[in-house]
Amino acid sequence: MVRVVVAEDHALVRQGIGMLLQSAGDFELVAETAKGSDVELLVQFHKPDLLLLDLALSDSSGIEVARRVRRVAPNVRILVVTGNVYPGSVANAFGAGVNGFVLKHEQGAELLDAIRTVMDGRRYISPQVAKGLDSSANKRPNAQGLPQTLTQREQQIVRMIARGGTNQEIADALHISVLTARKHRQNVMLKLGLHNGAEIAAYAMQAGLMEAPDVGSNL
C-alpha cells in the first residue's frame, strides 16, 4: 500500500484525488492540506511514500515546499499536480527534487500512470506538459526580452513587486482582492521561474520594465 500526502489548495481537487486513490485500491491517503507551511510536518509525521504537490498553494510556492521536503525526507517521491505549466516552473521544480509533473485537467488514468511511474523510480512528464515545453522552446522572446506569454496585467504585477509592493498594496492599486493579488504574484513567479521579490526586481531591471509607469498606481 502506497502512503500518500496531498498538498492542494482547492478542496474539490483534493476530494477528487482522494476518491481516485481510493478507487485504485493500492493507495492510502494519510493526510491532506491546502497550506505549504503544513507539508513538511505532515511528511515528517506520516512518513508517506508519495507527496502529490500543487505548485500554487495558498500560502507558499510549491517549489520551495519541495525543497524543504527533500531535505527532511530524501526518499519520498514528489509528483507535481498543477493547473498551469511554464518552462521556468518545470525546470525549477525538477531542480528542487520533484520526480514528475502532471496537469490537473488530465484524466485520472494519467495521474495513476504518473504515480506508478515515479513510484517505480522513474521520472514522469505528462504528454501535455512535454508538448507545452516544446511549444515554448520554439518561441522567441520579443524585443524587450519578455516572454510572449507575459500579459499586460502580469507586467504590471512584476513592476509592483519589483518596487516592493505588498499583496495589499497591489490589490489596492489594481482594485482587486488580496487573494487575487496573491494568485497573480504566484502565477508570475511560476511563469518566470523566479522565487522572491529580489529575483523579480532583477528580472524587471534587465527586461526594462522598471521604466514603464503603472497607470493608477502609486507604487
UniProtKB/TrEMBL annotation:
Keywords, sorted A to Z: DNA-binding, Phosphoprotein
SMART domains membership: HTH_LUXR, REC
Domain HTH luxR-type: 143-208
Listed GO MF terms: DNA binding
SUPFAM superfamilies the UniProt entry points to: C-terminal effector domain of the bipartite response regulators, CheY-like
Domain Response regulatory: start-end pairs: 3-119
Chain positions with 4-aspartylphosphate modification: D54
GO biological process: phosphorelay signal transduction system; regulation of DNA-templated transcription
PANTHER family: TWO-COMPONENT RESPONSE REGULATOR
Protein name: LuxR family transcriptional regulator
Source organism: Hydrogenophaga intermedia
